[in-house]
Amino acid sequence: MCAKLYRNLFLKKGKADSLGRRHPWVFSGAVHHIEGDAREGDKLRVLDDEGRFVAVGHWQIGSIALRVLSFEDEVIDAGFYAGRLAVALDVRKKIGVVRTGANDNRENRNDMYRLVHGEGDFLPGLIIDMYGSTAVMQAHSVGMHEDRMLVAEALKRVMGDELKAIYYKSETTLPYKAELGQENGFIHGSTDNNVAVENGLEFHIDWLKGQKTGFFVDQRDNRALLESYAKGRKVLNMFCYTGGFSVYAMRGGAELVHSVDSSAKAVDLVRANIELNFPGDSRHEAFAEDAFRFIEEMDGKYDLVILDPPAFAKHRDALKQALRGYTRLNARAMEKMPKGSILFTFSCSQAVNKDQFRTAIFTAAAQARRNVRILHQLHQPADHPINIYHPEGEYLKGLVLYVE
Ligand code: SAH
Q1: Mean pLDDT throughout 207-229?
Q2: Residues 329, 334, 337, 343, CA torsion sign
């Protein structure tokens, strides 16, 4: 069925090229005009200046005017979403992150993963993370918000009995000016069980109030690598949030693990997660403190350090300042680390690319006057795929360094 029921958006001359290369956004400067009076969140057909169909997508007020859902002239309904979700689930099964079967032993179990990663799964504006049998869904565009019940319907179809509840959490991810009156809450089923399993380790997931969808699912592979370095080491997990890295370090046989976050709530969560996996284990301690202050007093105490700060640059304008922030933080930490230490350092700022991050860390090493080797270059895991036509989707970068 063709999507003629949608209004048309006409592009200016020469502005269809990037869509021809399947880049999924139309910037407001490329728009010539829109037929009739479209409402924010509407689905529009995009036509070039000669009236040829190019794409269909969600329209929104802002510099990204339209997010492409399809390059086919088709209707966007529950069937459309079910098709996309079925592929997304199939990909997750093929890459091996869904390990919930009877044959998956305890150590290996994994029931939390990202099912839909926006543009990376050809569904711009939509995030779905799975925590056991609960899906936490986030809309980042007005159109996805309007379509939430279609997506929920599709998700039920695709997941079948495996899905018990869908929690919708878009209070903070939508433009407040759109005045959608959105609230967080269950839009299908409900559950009291908020414990999910990552690589055999259990975590309380605070999807009600927590950051993102309640957990940073994107660090799973990097946490597993950290575990392999932890034996006998004194670990500092800075910016620990729910303590993912700390729990892995404990299982890896660390001598001690200290978790630091400026949020007292995060510190409570870490403690609860350690208790869940290693009850009564005195190797762990958590501190509600500012990272920069804590670092000043860490002289020689830790030989395995994780620095996973919040995005220093949320926008391109803040880039320079963000890079200086990464340099300062890493330089201070390197200065205080004893010989033969290992540093896991990350940036999740989309506006900072791999090379810029590496340069910021290089500057930090030089300032700290240490011999530093890069052991690993880390990135987001396979369930956070990057749409090849949308390189902006690459956001998580990390380096594992040997600090001599
Ligand atoms: N490493 C975590 C995710 C980190 S998110 C994980 O694997 O789950 C970033 C965290 O940094 C947040 O929990 C936030 O509360 C904390 N934070 C922000 N500014 C801080 C500061 N100045 N000092 C310490 N923690 C800070």
Answers
A1: 92
A2: positive
